[in-house]
Design brief:
alpha+beta, Aminopeptidase, 9 helices, about 30% strand, flat, disordered N terminus, binds zinc ion
C-alpha cells in the first residue's frame, strides 16, 4: 500500500498552488502595530491549512478580531465584476474570534509553526491595554480567610509581574497571614480577578488607604489603582499619605507577613502599626521568613535604630549599624567606617593605622611598601619598581632613570641626575666620585 501511494503522489493530480501573499490589516490593527511595535506577519501562504487574510477588529467585541478564511476570500474574488460585488471588509461575511486565536492562525499560515503561548498572551494583553479594555477583570474587596487564599500563588492568573515574584506567594507563607485574617475591621485586600483568579492585589487599611500593588502586569496594576482611587482610597505606600498609625485588636502572633508600609509594631501592647519609625521600641515586620524582629538598640554613630538586635556590630561596648562599620581584614574585627581605609588593589578595608599612602595616591598595608629615593612610597611588588645601584628605589616611567653601560655598576640602574653622558656616544657612564 505505501508503494501504491508513492506512485499516486508522483502523478500531477490537482496540485494545490501555494503562494505567498500580502496580509491585509485594517487601519486599527496597523495603528496598533505602529503604536506598540508589535509585528504581525506581513505575508501568508495561500492554500496553507487554516489560511486567513483581511485581518480587522470586531466591532462588537473589543477582545475579538475578524478575518476571512480561504472559502470566503474565494467568494469575494468570485463576486468581483458581478452585480453582487462583495467587499472583504463587509461585516456580513467576516468571521470573528478571540485575538489570541486569530494571531495563532495567522502565524501558522505565515510561518508554518505555532507562536509560543506566552508570546500570544503578551500580545493579547498589549492589545487589551491599547484598546483600554479591562472589562474582563472583576474588582473585589476580600477579608478574613479569603485574604490568605489570595496570597497563594496557585490562585494567581499567572506567575508574572511583581505578583508572580512576591515573596509571600509560597505555601510556606500561608501561616503568616493571621494578622490580616483576624483583623477584618481594619485590614482588607483589594483584588482584581480574572475568571476567579487573582491578577492584582493590594492591602486596604482602615478603609482609607491602599498599599503597594502587586500585579501580573502594568494594565492590571493601573486598573486596580484606578478602582482603589474610585473608592476614595489614598495610597499609603508611596508616602503620599504621610505618617499613619493603625490600631489593630489582634497582634499577638508568632508569625508575621512581610509588610510593605505598616512595618513597625509599637512594643507597648497597644496594637499600633506605623508606616514610620516610632520613637520607642518596636517590632520590625519586614521579614520574608515569618519573623518579627525586635530591637531597642540604636547605632552609636548615626543614631538609627538597628532593626534586629542581633544585627548590631559591637566595637568595644558600643553597638553600631552595618552602614557605620567595616570589617578590618588585618585585625579581623569591625572598625568604624570613618577610621577605615580601602585598599583598592585587594578590595579590603583596614584601619588607617595599618596603611601607607603610595605614590599613586592609593593605600597599601605598611608592611607591603618600600620607600622611594624621593621619600614617597610604592607597593613592594609594583611592576614599575626598580632598585637602583645604590640600593634606593625608583619607578620607571615616573622617575628619569637609565641603565648604566660602563664601569663597575654596568647593567644596573641609576637616576639620570647621578649620571654623566660621555659626549659623542649614546652611552651613559657612572659618575666617578673618587
Ligand atoms: Zn549607624
Amino acid at each position: 500500500m505505501p508503494e501504491f501511494e508513492v506512485v499516486q503522489n508522483q502523478e500531477p493530480v490537482e496540485e494545490q498552488e501555494i503562494k505567498e501573499i500580502k496580509v491585509h490589516y485594517s487601519h486599527d490593527i496597523q495603528n496598533f502595530m505602529y503604536a506598540t511595535g508589535f509585528r504581525l506577519p506581513s505575508a501568508v501562504k495561500t492554500g496553507a491549512p487554516g489560511y486567513i487574510n483581511y485581518i480587522g477588529c470586531s466591532e462588537e467585541n473589543p477582545r475579538q478580531w475578524s478575518f476571512l478564511d480561504g472559502n470566503r476570500i474565494k467568494r469575494v474574488q468570485e463576486s468581483i465584476a458581478t452585480d453582487n460585488e462583495l467587499s472583504p471588509w463587509s461585516t456580513t461575511i467576516r468571521i470573528r474570534s478571540n485575538v489570541g486565536r486569530v494571531v495563532r492562525k495567522l502565524h501558522l499560515c505565515a510561518y508554518g509553526k505555532e507562536l509560543p503561548a506566552d508570546e500570544i498572551a503578551k500580545l493579547v494583553r498589549v492589545w487589551d491595554k491599547h484598546t483600554g479594555n479591562t472589562d474582563m477583570y472583576q474588582f473585589e474587596m476580600l477579608k478574613g480567610e479569603e485574604i490568605r487564599d489570595a496570597y497563594y500563588h496557585d490562585n494567581y492568573v499567572s506567575e508574572r509581574g511583581n505578583l508572580g515574584s512576591s515573596c509571600m506567594r509560597y505555601v510556606s507563607c500561608q501561616g503568616y497571614f493571621d494578622v490580616y485574617v483576624r483583623n477584618p475591621d481594619k485590614i482588607k485586600l483589594a483584588v482584581l480577578k480574572e475568571e476567579g483568579k487573582v491578577a492584582a492585589r493590594c492591602l486596604v487599611w482602615d478603609g482609607k488607604y491602599y498599599d503597594r500593588i502587586y500585579a501580573i502586569d502594568n494594565l492590571t496594576e493601573d486598573t486596580l489603582r484606578e478602582k482603589c482611587k474610585k473608592q476614595g482610597l489614598v495610597n499609603c505606600y508611596a508616602g503620599e499619605a504621610g505618617d499613619i498609625e493603625i490600631t489593630i485588636k489582634h497582634f499577638d502572633f508568632e508569625h508575621w507577613p512581610y509588610l510593605d508600609s505598616f512595618c513597625y509594631l509599637v512594643n507597648d501592647e497597644s496594637g499600633t502599626l506605623c508606616n514610620f519609625e516610632p520613637s520607642g521600641s518596636y517590632y520590625y515586620l519586614q521579614s520574608t521568613d515569618g519573623e518579627a524582629y525586635f530591637s531597642n538598640v540604636k547605632c552609636s554613630n548615626c543614631g538609627r535604630r538597628i532593626r534586629n538586635s542581633d544585627d548590631a556590630y559591637m566595637i568595644g561596648d558600643e553597638p553600631y549599624c552595618g552602614d557605620c562599620v567595616r570589617y578590618d581584614t588585618v585585625s579581623g574585627e569591625y572598625i568604624l567606617e570613618d577610621e577605615a581605609v580601602f585598599i583598592e588593589r585587594t578590595g579590603q578595608y583596614t584601619s588607617e593605622d595599618n596603611v601607607t599612602q603610595i605614590y599613586t595616591g592609593e593605600y597599601e598595608l605598611t608592611d607591603n611598601v618600600v620607600e622611594l629615593h624621593d621619600g614617597e612610597y610604592a607597593f613592594k611588588n609594583d611592576s614599575d619598581l626598580v632598585e637602583l645601584h645604590d640600593g634606593e628605589y625608583a619607578i620607571s616611567g615616573r622617575d628619569d632613570i637609565s641603565e648604566i653601560t660602563l664601569g663597575e655598576h654596568r647593567g644596573e640602574w641609576a637616576l639620570d641626575e647621578d649620571l654623566e653622558e660621555i659626549s659623542g656616544m649614546c652611552l651613559k657612564g657612572e659618575i666617578d666620585h673618587d
